[in-house]
Amino acid sequence: MPVDPESSQPLLRVEEVVKSYGSRTVLHRLSFTVATGERLALTGPSGSGKSTLLNCLGGVDRPDSGRVILDGVEVQSLASDALARLRRRTLGTVFQFFHLLPTLTAAENVEMPLQLIGVKAEERASRVRQALDRLGLGPRADALPSQLSGGEQQRVAIARALIHRPRLILADEPTGNLDSANGGIILDLLRELTDETHTALILVTHSEEAAAICHRRIHLQDGRAVIRT
Ligand SMILES: Nc1ncnc2c1ncn2[C@@H]1O[C@H](COP(=O)(O)OP(=O)(O)OP(=O)(O)O)[C@@H](O)[C@H]1O
Ligand SMILES: [Mg+2]
C-alpha cells in the first residue's frame, strides 16, 4: 500500500515553544505533535500555562521563540490577514463560558463561521439546520443565548466550532461551567463528532472524565510537559 502523505505529516507540530511574561517563563521549550483526528488532553494546575499554550497554537498570542506549524503552515510567519484566514478555515474553538454572541439567535451564532468564509446562503441554512438537529437543538434554533441553558449554549458553541469543518478544535475547559450530567453530554458529543468528522481536538481540562475521551495526554507543570501518555 502506498503511504498516504496526509497521514505521514502531523496536523499540528509544536517545536520548542517558549513564552514568557516579563521575567516569568510560562512555556519552556515545549514540543509535541497532534495527528489528524487525534484527541489530546492538556492538563495541569492553575497557572501552568494551558491557556497560554492554546493561545499560541491558535495564533491569538505569539511565542517568544519556537514554531507552531498548523496544517503545513508556520503560524507565526503569517501576516494578520492570512492568519485570520487560517484561523477561520482550519480552527474551531470552544470556551468555558460559551462566548456566544448575545444578540444573535442559536442558528445565527452557528451560521457566523460560514458567513466569514463566504459560504452561500442556501448552503449555510441547510448546514446550520443539520448541525442543530444533530445536537438536539432544532426546536431552539431561534432562541437567544440568554434563553438557553448552559448545556444548550455549549451545544450551540460546539455546532459553531464544527460547522465550517475545521481540522482542529481548541477547547479550553468546555465542561468547566456545567453540571456533571451536562458535562457528560458535551464530552460524548465532542468524542462522537470528532470521530465522525476526523477532526483533531486539544482539550484543556481539570477533569479526569474529560481527559478520558482523549487518545493522549500532556500534563503541564510550570510550563514543562511532565507526563505524556
Ligand atoms: N497576559 C498576561 N500577562 C502576564 N501574565 C500572564 C498573562 N497571561 C497569563 N499570564 C500568567 O501566565 C501563567 C499561565 O497562565 P495560563 O492562563 O496559561 O494558565 P492556565 O494553565 O490556563 O490556568 P487555569 O487552569 O487557571 O486556567 C499564569 O501565571 C498567568 O498569571
Ligand atoms: Mg486557563
Report on this model:
The chain has 229 residues and is α/β, with parallel strands linked by helices. The protein has one domain: 3-Layer(aba) Sandwich (Rossmann fold). It is 36% helix and 26% strand. The protein contains eight helices and ten strands. Strands 6-7-8-3-9-10 form a six-stranded mixed β-sheet, sandwiched between helices. Strands 2-1-4-5 form a four-stranded antiparallel β-sheet, covered by helices on one side. A hairpin with a 2-residue loop joins strand 1 and strand 2. Helix 4 packs across helix 5. The longest helix is centred in the C-terminal third of the chain and has 18 residues. The chain starts with a helix and ends with a strand. The N terminus is likely disordered. The structure holds adenosine-5'-triphosphate and magnesium ion. The site of magnesium ion has 3 residues, from helix 2.
Any key phrases for this structure?
6-stranded mixed β-sheet, disordered N terminus, alpha/beta, Rossmann fold, binds magnesium ion, 229 residues, 8 helices, binds adenosine-5'-triphosphate
Short description:
The chain has about 230 residues and is an alpha/beta fold.
How are the elements arranged and paired?
Blueprint (H helix, E strand, L loop, with lengths): L4 H4 L3 E10 L2 E11 L4 E5 L6 H8 L7 E6 L2 E2 L5 H11 E5 L10 H11 L4 H14 L15 H13 L5 E5 L7 H18 L2 E5 L3 H4 L4 E6 L2 E5 L1
Parallel strand pairs: 3-8, 3-9, 6-7, 7-8
Antiparallel strand pairs: 1-2, 1-4, 4-5, 9-10
Helix pairs in contact: 4-5, 4-6, 6-7
The structure holds adenosine-5'-triphosphate and magnesium ion.
Adenosine-5'-triphosphate (ATP) binds next to helix 2.
